[in-house]
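Possible regression after last week's pipeline update?

I re-ran a chain I had predicted before the update to compare outputs. Posting the input and the new output here so someone can diff against the archived version. Not blocking, just want to make sure nothing changed silently.
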Amino acid sequence: MRMFHDVDFDSRLQGKKNDQQTNFLGLRSQTLSLFYLGSSLSVLLPLIVYAYLGTFSRYRGDDYCETSRIRSSSNPLQASAIRYFERTGRYSTLLLVQVSEWFGKSGMIYMAATVLLVWLIGLIWMMSEIGDASGLRWNIWLSFVLAVLAMFFSLYRAPNLYQILFWRSGMVSYLAPIVLLVYLAALILHQLHDPFSHSGQLWSSLLIFAIVLITGGTSETIAALQIIILLLSFLALYFGTRVIRRDVLLMLGTALVSAILSMLIMALSPGNPARMNVMTLPMPDWFLLGTEALTYAVQFILDSFKVSPLPSILAFVMPFLLFCGLQNAYLQLSPQLAKKMRWLLFLIPLGMLMAIAVNFAPSAYAQSYPSARVRFPSLFLLTLTLMAEGGLSGYLLVQLKRSPANILFRGLVLGLLIMTFLYPIRIATKLYDQVPEYRAHAVAWDTRDEHIRQAVARGATDLVVVQLDTIAGIQEYKGNEDTWINGCAADFYGLRSLRAP
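New output (post-update):
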């Protein structure tokens, strides 16, 4: 009789525990939903302000030259060919400029918002594919939050945000290719865990070849970055799995061939000597070049932490807290997977350092530290690395703790997360304070633009207009009509000469 009593007591006790766990999981699910909604809105605010500031973008500096070159050619390919032979090996930037020109002035005004939206969609896809490929399989909300965090910290810490987001010439060379590379990474990651059919592999390989070829043609630094990332991907797959599937090998091999081809096309451009003001390009000292590029990379990383210490710390802490407190910690890692994740904590920063050094190699060859806009792709890599280190550390900590259902622990993490997500809101208010300044520049440009167009309509061929201030180091045409920018601006408006003394 006592035996039946004990069984009944144990079953009731177990049932009570199950009910408690069910109630906790239900509360956890509701808490997560509310948190993801609030955090998404919080981190989105700065991006929304960036998109709004972008509506005040206008033609500046090289924009006049690029538009004039396209208009004077029969098609963008001819314009790119002329530029390739006469000025620079960057053969695909004018193709991207043409996309903006299809929409006229609106293409310039809504450029930043469009790029941000396309980048966000690609990053959400990439984050989801990382979750699926790793076996952790987090939900779409977490992918969204991680994607927005990556964008926010990259843009806010950008050395010269205006040049890579609000200036078209800088954007097509350094931000647009990063967006394309995000889609490339998502496509390859998808192939890892969900292979395409035989015909799908062929079409995806052709698509990858085209994406990499266009991306690599935007700048020498991006072409170099593509090559090292693909080589590191080969190494990571080989040492991680010991066997690389044929379909994955085909995709990565196609991408690598296209990346090398893009670098060769730019290196062989007849316009390179003219751009560097030399008769022939000198052969590099490879050891010295590698040493200098590595020195630049280390200097860049240290400077990034010195210039923006709090955003750098939060780029690590926020993913740490997300994975430590809110990710599904009931999923216990296998010893083999946990060992790989611990190795990744060391290998990811090492790979990042190598990638940044190679990214800086073209600047080192030109014997200069990379300019502000050139450093942006490396800053994006640094941001992703900090987030990856934080996420991995948080997930591994939970696995060691073995008490993921501890309400006090979860509450503490949630409280810290809420505090950290107040930071983007504060930054959004600071960014919004810049609206009057940006609007004033746009109004001044529009007023002068209307004056010039009215004068051209009346038959003017030589014009003197008011001078505008330089923004973020981007040149404006001045008083000397013989300078290159004055000539480009005159061609842009259909004038013989244009001065702004």
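Follow-up from reviewer: compared with the archived run. Residues 438-499 form one domain. Marking as no regression found.
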